[in-house]
Design a protein that fits this description.
By secondary structure, the protein is mostly helical. 89% of the residues lie in helices and 0% in strands. It starts with a helix and ends with a helix.
C-alpha cells in the first residue's frame, strides 16, 4: 500500500513539472512570435530589402537588440506623432501618403 501511494505521488509530481515546462516553452514561443511580428512591421515601415533587411532582422530579433529598444512602442509612438501632424496640416490622399512616408522615415533615422 505504501509503495503504490508513493508511486502515485511521484507520478503526480512529474506530471506537474512536465506541465510547467510545456507552459514555459509555449510562453517563450509566443514572445518570439511577437518579436518576429514587431520586427517584420518595423522592417516593412523602413522599406528595408535584401542584406539591409537581413541585418536589421538579426539585430532586432536578438535579445540584446530587443532589450535596448522596445520595438512595438517606439513604432506606435512614431505613427501617432506623424498621424497627428498630418491631421493638423489637413493632408489627404497622395499628399498625406507622401508626408507619412517622409515623417516615418525621418523618425526612424
Amino acid at each position: 500500500m505504501r509503495r503504490s501511494t508513493w508511486l502515485v505521488g511521484i507520478s503526480a509530481a512529474l506530471a506537474v513539472v512536465a506541465g510547467q515546462a510545456a507552459l514555459a516553452q509555449a510562453t517563450h514561443e509566443n514572445s518570439q512570435q511577437e518579436k518576429m511580428t514587431s520586427c517584420n512591421a518595423d522592417a516593412k515601415a523602413k522599406a528595408l530589402k535584401g542584406a539591409d533587411r537581413k541585418a536589421f532582422m538579426k539585430t532586432c530579433l536578438s535579445d540584446k537588440g530587443a532589450a535596448a529598444e522596445p520595438k512595438g512602442n517606439s513604432q506606435q509612438e512614431k505613427m501617432k506623432t506623424c498621424n497627428a501632424d498630418a491631421k493638423t496640416k489637413g493632408l489627404k490622399g497622395a499628399d498625406r501618403k507622401a508626408f507619412m512616408k517622409t515623417c516615418l522615415s525621418a523618425s526612424s533615422s
